[in-house]
Write a structure and sequence with these properties.
Elements: E1 3-8, H1 16-30, E2 34-39, H2 45-49, H3 56-67, E3 70-78, E4 81-82, H4 84-92, E5 102-109, H5 116-128, E6 133-134, E7 138-141, E8 145-146, E9 149-150, H6 152-179
Parallel strand pairs: 1-2, 1-3, 3-5, 5-6, 5-7
Antiparallel strand pairs: 3-4, 8-9
Helix pairs in contact: 1-6
Length: about 180
């Protein structure tokens, strides 16, 4: 089975992004995937911001990205940009770290106007780190997340995104095994 990494740029487990990450984690586990969630907020601040790859937690975070077959990047959108936590983590990665990995961007935000953050900010940052398989993500409006509950229509859209993601991860895994030389 493929390895999946969820990167959460949410400020807390109960934030809207945290609720979406928890929901996606449940969907992936229900589908039989081994999932690791990396809560960027839990990484040590100074080593994260100074890009200290010698710090064991920072090194483990980068290694988790490099080991994953599929990565879900979830971020709140503030003022039409993804969170600084997500940017700080992505800045740690080598230039082509995301090459060959299936990426699903997810975002939460206060208005439909912030949807552009995925196309004009997050996706270019992912491409800059070598992502060559970025799927169409989902943007969930803040009003669609009430406490720990996601509105049915938004939950259905997230499930559709996760289904696209798992299909793409399995297709990529099949291609890798098919291209391996025999022997």
């Amino acid at each position: 089975m493929s390895s999946i990494l969820l990167i959460s740029g949410g400020p807390s487990p109960t934030s809207r992004t945290g609720v979406v990450v928890s929901h996606v984690d449940g969907l992936l586990r229900e589908a039989g995937y081994g999932v690791r969630t990396l809560h960027v907020r839990q990484l040590p601040t100074l080593p994260l911001l100074t890009e200290d790859l010698r710090d064991p937690e920072i090194g483990d975070a980068v290694a988790s990205v490099l080991r994953a077959d599929g990565i879900v990047v979830a971020s709140p959108v503030y003022r039409a940009a993804y969170s600084g936590l997500v940017k700080a983590l992505l800045d740690l990665l080598p230039k082509k770290a995301l090459r060959g990995r299936v990426i699903l961007p997810l975002a939460t935000g206060g208005s439909q106007g912030f949807l552009v953050a995925m196309d004009y900010a997050l996706n270019p940052m992912l491409a800059g780190k070598g992502a060559d398989s970025v799927l169409r993500g989902e943007f969930v409006l803040d009003p669609d997340i009430d406490g720990g509950t996601i509105a049915p229509k938004a939950a259905e859209a997230i499930r559709g995104a996760v289904d696209r993601f798992t299909s793409a991860v399995e297709d990529a895994r099949f291609q890798r095994t098919r291209l391996r030389p025999a022997g």
